[in-house]
Amino acid sequence: MKKISSTFSRLLPFLALLVVALGCGQDDKSETSTTGANSSTTASTPASTSTSDIVGTYDISGTNENGAGAYKGTLEVKSRGDVYQFSWNTAGKTYDGVGVRTGNNLGVAFAEGENGEGCGVVLYKIGADGTLDGKAGYWGNNSSESETATRNSGTGLEGDYSIKGKNTQGKPYEGTLGVKKSGAGYAFTWQAPSTLSGFGIQQGQSVAVGIGGNKCGFVSYEVKSDGTLDGKWGGYGSTSVGTEVAKKK
């Protein structure tokens, strides 16, 4: 996706903390299908009913974390049932990811290469009362997951929440969520009932949270009125974020 050959490697110690959590928690919240994100089978149901269609090919330009250089490349977005497939080509490398959309906000989890197994993303819309209305996607699964988090204590985005949701198989689950400020974003910890950890970046009234192993990163995009995707990206424990602008060809 980006020039992560140098920059993304610095995130590995932080993202490695998620490996154990993902192994314990994802089965409780999501069940992965055998159809990968690169499957040639595209469901007929569109991933979004918005009139601004994000499917297509883009030219991208961006900056790495901590101002560590600029990059350019291309991005292809495809509809995969309830989710989207994101495929980047930049600096001679390819990256593949899964994305979910709510209104004009996109959350994407990605990994280098064509196999992002274990990577996932949750995109929350922040309500006026602090409630988080979430939609999640996992690489290799064309179905999405829904979750509502009701804040019991805290201010702003930080606090303790009670959660209820349905996983990608439509099975209900309940649990708790804790959100704490961390570096350039927020640390998320779910108990549903096993522990799952993630790192999120807020843009306006939405927050995209990446989860996964030591190879996973994530992006939070805002879909502009002209179709441009304006993004911020990073990984677990980021002290700063990279930026990316994708313009449809």
Topology:
Elements: H1 12-15, H2 17-29, E1 56-63, E2 70-80, E3 83-90, E4 93-102, E5 105-112, E6 120-126, E7 132-138, E8 145-153, E9 159-166, E10 172-182, E11 185-191, E12 195-203, E13 206-211, E14 217-223, E15 229-234, E16 242-248
Antiparallel strand pairs: 1-2, 1-16, 2-3, 3-4, 4-5, 5-14, 6-7, 6-13, 7-8, 8-9, 9-10, 10-11, 11-12, 12-13, 14-15, 15-16
How many strands in all? 16
Structural class: mainly beta
First-last Cα distance? 17 Å
- Order of helix and strand elements from N to C terminus: HHEEEEEEEEEEEEEEEE
Arrangement of strands in the largest sheet: 1-2-3-4-5-14-15-16
Largest sheet: 8 strands, antiparallel, barrel
The low-confidence runs, each spanning 5 or more residues with pLDDT under 50, are: 2-28, 30-51
Return the domain count: 1
Question: Could you tell me the strand content as a percent range?
Answer: over 45%
Provide a quick synopsis of the model.
Helices cover 7% and strands 52% of the residues.
What does this entry look like structurally?
The structure is a single chain. The chain has 249 residues and is mainly beta. The chain has one domain. Helices cover 7% and strands 52% of the residues. Residues 2-28 and 30-51 have low confidence and may be disordered.
